[in-house]
Design a protein that fits this description.
With 253 residues, the protein is mostly helical. Helix content is 92%, strand content 0%. It has four helices and no strands. The protein has helices spanning 3-41, 50-82, 86-124, 130-252.
């Protein structure tokens, strides 16, 4: 079982528990409203539901402790969803949105129930128990305000963490893109360097070929000059040998 599925099961169990507690609070509120109306019509003075008030405070304490835990589970689920691949992320995003909507609905329902209970407490408590009742209500209001402040602070912290995580992910993606671009540029430079080496090698081979051709042409030119000189010498000798006996014979005569 993955960590996201564990978070999902814990969240479902916690939401079911919160829903049950809110249902009990609403039932107590309805019963208090019914009996409070009867007692007020009968003008009965003693109506201090201390036991019922203790149960309400206990339920409210459980709900106040469970709501931040559910909020934290939602944030953890959101972080885990971001780590999934796109195919799984789309399906879990729908579940996460439904869970967030259910959580907000429970918060609104719990707030309305508490406000209704405070209104009933202020209307049904008699003048003899008015000071004690106001003290209890003020204590529960202070506790609720502190819990709401803590919940808002935790929510703001979670939002900041989520925003920081989003910025970190975007920075990581930008860094990966830059590294990818640098890798492509490095491959391009390596290819250009390899082509430059090949071009230098080709130029070297062409230079050696040109040098060989120049040496061969020079040798051929030297041989050609040598042949020409030999030819001239041979022609001169042949001419000399041809005309020399005739001039000797003419001198003898």
């Amino acid at each position: 079982m993955s960590l996201l599925e564990q978070y999902e099961q814990q969240y479902a169990s916690l939401i079911a528990e919160i829903t049950a507690h809110i249902g009990r609070l609403q039932q107590q509120s309805n019963n208090s409203e019914f009996w409070g109306g009867i007692f007020s019509q009968a003008r009965m003075i003693n109506f201090p539901p201390t036991q019922r008030q203790g149960e309400r405070n206990e339920l409210c304490g459980k709900i106040d402790g469970s709501l931040p835990e559910a909020q934290e589970l939602l944030e953890q689920m959101g972080l885990e969803v971001r780590e999934l691949n796109p195919a799984q992320r789309s399906s879990f995003n729908g579940k996460l949105q439904v869970a967030q909507a259910e959580f907000k609905r429970l918060q609104v329902e719990y707030r309305q129930t508490r406000e209704k209970q405070r209104a009933q407490a202020s209307n049904t408590f008699t003048t003899l128990d008015l000071s004690d009742s106001y003290e209890d209500v003020s204590i529960s209001t202070d506790q609720r305000q502190r819990l709401l402040d803590n919940s808002e602070r935790i929510e703001r912290t979670g939002n900041r963490l989520t925003e920081g995580y989003r910025v970190a992910v975007e920075t990581e993606q930008m860094g990966a893109q830059v590294l990818n671009d640098l890798h492509h540029q490095r491959e391009t430079l390596h290819g250009a360097r390899a082509r430059l080496r090949e071009t230098n090698a080709e130029l070297g081979r062409a230079s050696r070929t040109l040098n060989t051709m120049m040496l061969r042409a020079l040798r051929e030119k030297v041989v050609l000059y040598g042949v020409g000189v030999c030819f001239v010498v041979a022609v001169g000798v042949s001419l000399y040998l041809t005309f020399a006996p005739s001039s000797t014979s003419s001198v003898t005569l």
